[in-house]
Amino acid sequence: MQPSDPSWSDEEARLRTAICKIGELCYSRGTVVAADGNISARMRDGSILVTPTGSMKGFLNPHQIAKLGADGTPPPVGPKPSSEIGIHMVAYEERPDVRAILHAHPPHAVAMTIAGIDLQMPVIPEVIVTIGGIPTAPFGTPGTPELPETIREIIRCSDTVMMKNHGSVTLGTNLMEAFKKLDMLEHTARILWLAHTAKGGLDPLPPEDVQKLLATRAALGITQRNTLETGCGLPQDGN
Ligand SMILES: [Zn+2]
Predict the structure, then answer these.
(1) 137: CA distance to ligand 1 center in Å?
(2) Is 22 part of any domain?
(3) 237 pLDDT higher than 60
(4) Number of domains in the chain
(5) What's the gap in Å between 84 CA and the centre of ligand 1?
(6) Would you state the pLDDT for residue 238?
(7) CA of 205 to the centre of ligand 1 (A)
(8) Residue-level pLDDT at 2
(9) Is this model's pTM higher than 0.70 or not?
(10) Which CATH number fits the domain that encloses residue 164?
(11) Of residues 119 and 236, which shows the higher confidence score?
(12) 142 is in which domain, residue-wise?
């Protein structure tokens, strides 16, 4: 890593370095390849730090990160932000609690949306108890204002969203939280994919078992958003 810039605050230097680290992690986990995906963090003053357009996220240095105003205004000079900055701005707009956003192309999860297999299906206990399931937003054309609008409604009630045939969006109160959700999302999709392939389909747990699992949330002190409790993001199409 190159040395920090004297104009950066401690917070800015830390977040720039953390964005590069998360890019390396995503690349090593195979949830982004080539110039896929983008990563952002919101600073305390509202400014947004985001990965630059066309870059390989596994090989960034802190000086390559773009810095935008709180309203997403791009810098007059310096690195240009990702072309998918609209996804991040919609999520920050809708979720004042969110400080970090990851957009990636996790292969099993994307394959599930292409195949039309419902990632909301209640199958794995840990997922049911924590996030509930992973909603899928309808297809939107990348690089156009249509794409961010496809996730606006779901992002209000879920920290993990799939964009059909395209990729994931995960939100967090910090970068590691957003990465943790991406990691869990792809791991879940991989298990469901393996089971689907082995069996030729997936069976949801019976509703009474799902209810028993959801009832453990209070005792376990789990308060995060749960799509099964709220009915967030019903499947867009059949299996
Ligand atoms: Zn993408």
Answers:
(1) 13
(2) yes
(3) no
(4) 1
(5) 7
(6) 43
(7) 32
(8) 61
(9) yes
(10) 3.40.225.10
(11) 119
(12) 10-230
